[in-house]
């Protein structure tokens, strides 16, 4: 019988892509989401396409009972539920803390009591904080630069303690600037790639924070799905109770990103080639440069990313053209 897996935050951008990937490979999937940032349109098509193997639980990870209810019959967890965004955490640290720390702890407690075989969770590259070392290597971090970064670091500490104290198998994935289909281009906290695409498709100038020379390791969602499935399935005892960079392993400046997006989108609409960018101030809490070493993930999990930035941007831009 196919394994039943809980995806928390399963109506979100990454979570819904994980739900779909699991369903397509034959798993039973339970999605727990309160729709605070997740979207019904991300999961309703899955309910129609997989009526027997997909279940939606509307609930909140801040409620332990909701966590327990969602976990019934599940033997593994992909924990994606969180309040993302550094600026949001700076504006409202209390809610970010309640969701990302108290909610995470609830999920760990529920997973421990349900005796799940594996707990895979979304960690964050923000944990590297003020460390200037490049590339980022998992065992060398700095001090957090935002409330969001604090919460994601605390997640790693809690997972480590639960592994050692209760014998759980936990694996954390430090996501680096994930992008792709279903990532929301709307709202105050939209990520840079969907925001730029939305603006360019409307012939509007996107705002680049700072001079555009800050760089990021942009990671296409299909690479992230691969990492989650590898973390879920690994039988390598050395690979358990670790955190892994989840990235492509190359860095791109915001100016280079903007130029690449213009080139891809102007193939659909030549007028986009003439849209300029405008520059604003640097964002509070932003680190200047981010680049992951993915050697540990390759060595212990067999990770082999399938999509470069350009490959991912081509797929993402085609999706936005069809859906915006």
Automatic annotation (TrEMBL):
Q: Any signal peptide, and if so, which residues? A: none
Q: Which domain of life is it from?
A: Bacteria
- Entries under Pfam families matching the protein: Epimerase
Domain NAD-dependent epimerase/dehydratase per the UniProt entry, residue ranges: 5-245
Entries under InterPro entries matching the protein: Epimerase_deHydtase, Lipid_A_modif_metabolic_enz, NAD(P)-bd_dom_sf
What is the official name of this protein in its record?
SDR family oxidoreductase
According to its UniProt entry, this protein's organism is Candidatus Spyradosoma merdigallinarum
């Amino acid at each position: 019988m196919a394994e039943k897996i809980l995806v928390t935050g399963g109506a979100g951008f990454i979570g819904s892509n994980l739900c779909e990937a699991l369903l397509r490979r034959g798993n039973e999937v339970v999605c727990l989401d309160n729709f605070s940032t997740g979207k019904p349109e991300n999961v309703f098509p899955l309910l129609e396409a997989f009526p027997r193997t997909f279940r939606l639980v509307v609930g909140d990870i801040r409620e332990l009972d909701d966590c327990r209810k969602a976990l019934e019959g599940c033997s593994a967890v992909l924990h994606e539920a969180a309040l993302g965004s550094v600026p949001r955490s700076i504006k409202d640290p209390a809610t970010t803390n309640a969701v990302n720390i108290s909610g995470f702890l609830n999920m760990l407690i529920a997973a421990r009591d349900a005796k799940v075989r594996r707990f895979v969770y979304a960690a964050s590259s923000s944990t590297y904080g003020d460390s200037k070392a490049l590339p980022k290597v998992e065992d060398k971090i700095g001090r957090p630069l935002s409330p969001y970064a604090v919460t994601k670091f605390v997640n790693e500490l809690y997972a480590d303690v639960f592994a050692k104290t209760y014998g759980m198998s936990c694996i954390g994935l430090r996501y680096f600037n994930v992008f792709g289909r279903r990532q929301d281009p709307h709202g105050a906290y939209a990520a840079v790639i969907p925001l730029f695409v939305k603006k360019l498709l409307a012939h509007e100038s996107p705002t680049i924070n700072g001079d555009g020379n800050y760089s990021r390791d942009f990671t296409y969602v299909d690479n992230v799905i691969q990492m989650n499935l590898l973390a879920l399935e690994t039988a390598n005892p050395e690979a358990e109770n670790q955190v892994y960079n989840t990235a492509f392993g190359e860095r791109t400046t915001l100016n280079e990103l903007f130029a690449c997006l213009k080139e891809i989108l102007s193939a659909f609409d030549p007028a986009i080639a003439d849209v300029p960018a405008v520059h604003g101030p640097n964002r509070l809490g932003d680190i200047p440069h981010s680049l992951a070493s993915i050697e540990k993930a390759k060595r212990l999990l067999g990770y082999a990313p399938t999509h470069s930035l350009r490959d991912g941007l081509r797929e993402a831009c085609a999706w936005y053209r069809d859906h915006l």
